[in-house]
Description:
This protein is of the alpha/beta class. The protein has ten helices and six strands; from the N terminus they run H-H-E-H-E-H-E-H-H-H-H-H-E-E-E-H. Helix content is 46%, strand content 17%. Helix 4 (76-87) packs parallel to helix 9 and helix 7 crosses helix 8 (142-162). Zinc ion binds at residues 39, 41, 64, 98, 101-103.
Amino acid sequence: xxxxxxxxxxxxxxxxxxxxxxxxSLASGQKPETLFITCSDSRIDPSLLxxxxxxxxxxxxxxxxxxxxxxxxxxxxxATIEYAVLALGVRDIILCGHSDCGAxxxxxxxxxxxxxxxxxxxxxxxxxxxxxxQENHSHxxxxxxxxxxxxxxxxxxxxxxxxxxxxxxxxxxxQLNLHGWVYxxxxxxxxxxxxxxxxxxxxxxxxxxxx
Length: 211
Ligand SMILES: [Zn+2]
């Protein structure tokens, strides 16, 4: 907690005064163009990763960057998505998984979280990804298996995202773009799913730029 409190003091004394105009412009409203959905993992900093400022990205985080399909759970994730799309009018939704994801590791080893009923129940929404990997990549093990699941989970959650009425309506109008990313913590590299190639490719090389 000491680290947090000294950081807060630094923000108050140094950072805020230097950015007073930015915060004044944000004081009465926001107009972010992107919803960023990612894992709660402490090693991910969406604003650092995308070099964005306060007000630029609307963020939804949970263990495993999971989006339950519409109707399965009416909760924080559904409400955040609906608000981002309908009230804020975001044009892009990035769903970003990451390397060494503890939630995905637990999905491969459910017994490791058997004593955590809430985590176990939440990870059920990643079950379709696990099943796809199990059926199609049965030769993989260890880190390769985990990485395949991390990618497949991003695709599964993008599918779930499309079931949300606000998302499907804006997609149909051509007013929304969905992006599936995986952030590699150790290398800093981000790969994005390229539907044409049906695989994840380095983002800086071939993924379309965000509007
Ligand atoms: Zn994670």
